[in-house]
C-alpha cells in the first residue's frame, strides 16, 4: 500500500524540557520521526520548547517552533500552519497529553487535523485505569486485583477479595505520598485510615501487591494491515516494586522459557490490538509470579517510550523511524531494514548478544532525599552496554556509568552484615555491589534470593564473577595463566579491576591480555549481511576486525593480528 | 576518498550538570566533520541519544567511555585524531591519559585545558592579562580558614577542593556559619584543603560562549543571568542579549573573552563566566570546551556554534567558514554574529526535579540541581520571559493574589515589584513583618498569618488556591522555617514562585507584557 496522499503537512510535538522520567530519548525519537517524514516528502511542523535538542535544529523540520508546550500555544501554531495531521506518539507523555487536550477541546476538529499513529480512543483506553482493566478482561489477560475505596468500611470488605500483601495508594497526592503496603489486617486498618486522610478527595486505591515478582517488557509494533512484530523483550533484574526506569534491565529476557516467551509475545500482540493502536510502537509491561509462573499485565504505553529507545539501540531496529512511516500508511513488509537492506521491517530482530542497561542516579545532589528505589522514578540518566554474555555486558555497563567503578568491588568490606543485608533487601542504587559483597562473605544464592527476590539465574552469574574474583586475587600478573586471563577478559573484568586484583598497573594488564574483538549489531544474528557500521566489542575468539569498508572480518590466527 | 578519520568521544550517561546539550554538540561535530569530508567515528554508551543512532555517524561504537575501551577503538580504527571538547567532562578526563598514550587530541590542547582548570596557573594567567578575579584563598586548617575568610571579607563561598560541580559548596555570611559548615559538612586537612572565594553580593553574572581558530575569536553571545551571583550558572535563567548591562560593559566583556581565547590558544569552543559588580568585570571561570549553553546560543543567534567549532578543529579558518560575519560593519554588543539591528530576546529557563524529591527545599544555590531547560523567544523581553516560564510549567497569572515574603536585605528592591503588581491589579499578601514594611511604604497589602499564628495561615491559603504567585527570598539560614513550607506548598500546587528579586522583577515585566500584547508564535525559519 502506498503512503497516504490525503495529508501533506504533519505536526510533530516534542517532549519539552528534560525531566526525570522523560529525557533525551524523545529527542532521539522526534529527530528520527521528523527525518523519516521529510524523507517521504511530507512537510514537517515541529514544536518543542527545549532548545538543547537536535530535533529543534532548523534543518530537521520544515517549520520549527521553539514555543511553550501548552494548549493555547499549540492552537496558535495549528491556526497558523494548518497541518493535516498530528503525530503525537513520539514526544512522550507530554505530547500525548497535549493531543488529548487538543482533541477534547475540539481544536483538532475545528482545524480539521487528524490524529495519526494513535487515536484518541486508543490513548484513553491505554491510560484510563478502568477502561484498560476492562480491555484486558475482554482478551482474558489478568491484572493485579484492585479497587478504589472511599471509606474504611468499604476497604475492610474489599480486602477479603484482594488479600495480602496489599498496596494502599491515596488518590491525588504528590509523588505517591501517603502510600504504603500492608501485610496483615492489623496493619491494614490504620494504614487505610491514614491513606484516606492523606488524599484530598478522601479516596484510596487498594491493589494486590506484586512486589517481588519478576518484571518483563515487550516492545511491539503494528501496521494498518494488522501485522505485528515484537522488536525486543526486556527483563528487569530488579523485581517489581522498582520503577523500570530505575531498574537494571537486560535484553533479551534471560530467564523466560521459550514457551513463556511465546506467551508474552501473543499477549503483547493481543494487547496492542485490543487497545487499538493502529500503527506504530507500544510498550507492554508484565509481571510474573516466580512461584506459579502466572503473568499479569501491568500497563501499556501506546507510544514510543524510554524502553523503545533502549530496544532500538539494543537491536538496531529504528522503532521511531518505522513508527513514523507506519503512521503515514506504510506496512511493515513494505519498509526495508536499513541494516540488512534485504529483509523488510516485518522480520523480527534476532540478537546474539546481551544488552544491559543501568540507570544513573544523582542522590548526592539531594542529600535530604530518601534514596530508596520505589515505583516513582528517580534516576537522571542511563548507560547501555553490549557484551557476548551477561557477565561481560554487566561489567561493561558498570564501567560506562562513570562512577569511578570498574567492577563489582567498591570497598564494602567494612560494612557489617546487617547493613549489607539491609542494602540487599531495600532496593537502592548500590544494590548490585552489595549483592556482590554478600557473595564475597560466602552467602548463598538462595540466601540472597530470599533477601532480594532477584531471579536465581542472575544471582548465579554474579556469584560466579565473585568466585572467580577470589581466584584471581590469589594470583599476580606473573603467576596468572593465559587461559585465566582470557577467561577474565571474556567475563568482562576491566583491565583496571584486574590490575587491582593482580596487584599491578592497568598498562601492564593491557600489555599482557588478549586483544579485543569487534562485532556488528545487525538485527539478524548474522543471518544476512549487515550494511550498518554499528559495533560493540567483546574479548572473544575468533577476532573480529573492523575493515576500512566497515565490514568485520573474522581472524582465527592471532599471531598475525597486528598486521591486520 | 575521505580526508581522514576522526573519533568523537560522546558524553556518556546523562546526569545533572551534563545533559543532552553535550549530545547535541557531539552530533553537530559529527555532522560538520562529515560535511568536511572526514570519516566520523562516534563512541558513546548512552542509549537515549541521537549520537548513538546508527545513521548519525559513519561508524558507531557503542562502548564505555573509559581509557581501556576507548584506547581499544583507537588501536583498531587508527584515527587521525580524537575530539574531546564536545562531550563535557566525560571525554575531557581522558584527554591527558590518551595524549600520554600517543593519541592526537584535536583542537584546544590538553595543556590549555589544564591551565584553565588549575587554580594557580589560571590565577597567573588572569594577572598576566591584567584582568580581575574575585579574591580567593586556600585554607588547610580550621584556623587558617577563619583568618582567610576574614581577610577576604564576608560573605564568602566555601567548598572542599576535592569535589567538583559545586557539590558541598556553601555561601557563608559570618565566622559562626563558617565554623558550623566546617564542623558539619567538611573536614579541612592538609591534603583536603578548603577553597574560599569572595562572594560578589548582588553582582550580575554573565556567561559567554565563543569560538576561536587561534587567530580570530567570535563571540556567540554574551548572556545575562536573571538570577544574581551565588546561583549555579546551570540553574539560572539566562537572557540573550543582556537586558540590564550597558554596551560598554558588553564590549569590554567581549574584549576580555578574545584575550583569554588567544592566551589559551583556543581552537574550538570556549565558555567564560563573568560577574559584574559596580561596573567592574570579574572573571569567574574559563572552560575551553563546549558548554551547556551552546545549543541555546546557536538557536538564539542563528549560527550553529558547535558545527563551526568542529570545522575549526580540522583546520579551517573562521573567516572562511562564516565570511559574512566578518563583513558586519557594526556588530551587536552581545554577539559578533549579528549587527546592531538584531532585536530579539531569547530566554533560557531551567526545570528542577522538586516534585520527585518531596523532602528537598526547592531553593537555588551554588550547586546545580536542574535537569533540563526550555527557551522563550520574543521581540519583547517580558513576553520572552513569559514564554520561558510557561514552557517550564509555570504559567504566570493575569490577576489574583501574590504572596510576598523577603529577607530584610531584599525589602527595598522588592518594593518596586509590589507597586507594579498593585498597578497591574494584583492583591499583595504578606506576613506581619513585610506587611508592616509595605504599610510604611504606602503599598497596600493584606496581612496573612504565619505558620505559627492562627489558621488559615499562608500555607493553608496556598493549598486552598487563594494565592496565585509567590515571591519568597531566603534569609540565608537553611533551617526548616516557614519559608520552606511555603516553597514546598507552591511546588506541590504548581504555583509560580520566585526566590530572587531579579526573577520577580522579570516576572512582573512578563505579566505586564502578557496583559498588553498578543501571544504570538513564529518558527525559527522565519526569524531573521
From TrEMBL, chain A:
InterPro entries: ATP-grasp, CarbamoylP_synth_lsu_oligo_sf, CPAse_ATP-bd, CPSase_dom, CPSase_lsu_oligo, CPSase_preATP-grasp, PreATP-grasp_dom_sf
ATP-grasp domain segment(s): 133-328
UniProt enzyme class: ligase
PROSITE patterns: ATP_GRASP, CPSASE_1, CPSASE_2
Lineage top rank: taxon: Bacteria
Entries under Pfam families matching the protein: CPSase_L_D1 (PF25596), CPSase_L_D2 (PF02786), CPSase_L_D3 (PF02787)
EC number: 6.3.4.16
GO-annotated molecular function: carbamoyl-phosphate synthase (glutamine-hydrolyzing) activity
Reactions that this protein is recorded to catalyse: hydrogencarbonate + NH4(+) + 2 ATP = carbamoyl phosphate + 2 ADP + phosphate + 2 H(+)
Entry keywords, A to Z: ATP-binding, Ligase, Nucleotide-binding
Family, similarity comment: Belongs to the CarB family.
Protein name: carbamoyl-phosphate synthase (ammonia)
Gene this protein is translated from: carB
